[in-house]
Write a structure and sequence with these properties.
Blueprint: H1 2-7, H2 12-35, H3 42-53, H4 57-62, H5 69-79, H6 85-103, H7 107-137, H8 142-217
Helix pairs in contact: 2-7, 2-8, 3-8, 5-6, 5-8, 6-8, 7-8
Amino acid sequence: MEYLLSRGGIIIYPLLISSLVALTIIIERFYQFIRIPRQLPDKLMEVIKENIALKKYKEAASLCEGKGPTARILKRGIINAHKDPEDIEKLMEELKWDEFPRLEKHLEGLNFVGKISPSLGLLGTVTGMIKTFQALSLNGEPQELAAGISEALITTAVGLIISIPTLAAYYYFINKIKQMINHTEKREIELLNFISEHRIVNDTEIYSVGRERSEVQA
């Protein structure tokens, strides 16, 4: 660290600050992603549907508690299962716009650090070469020339060292969020189809019962 501060010039300071910001965001996001379930297991989904089929909506909704954003979105659909499928879908979509942006918190900052770090490194390269040419114009000592070249190379290397893992972490998180969104949409469709089919069955049963009563009375 002392070597970087002494040889990296003034540009090394914003680079080191950027690295600390990126590291903080990465650790915080990893903690959040590890802590929350990213998918709703098939077995749990089957149990939820079984409860809905038995009209145990409270039990079905309680199974979604503490199971992550996908489960919370499905819970919104379950507690509104008495409404039209279009209305249920809108309510779940509304909650989805609240849930997933929370997972993207600070990721734009991570993307910014990853993209600006090489530019800061390039700026350090330019300042280092300026010092080198100034030393040449004044017939400077070899140590002065080496200091300028060293600053140019160090800042370029540090900028790339920060940028590569930072952008890798950013795209990793974005990819995980996309997978969660796709999984949630799949579960939403599965729930809506099940509720719709269940309603059709109920309507058929009601119609059959009503018809049997009419025939008996006749």
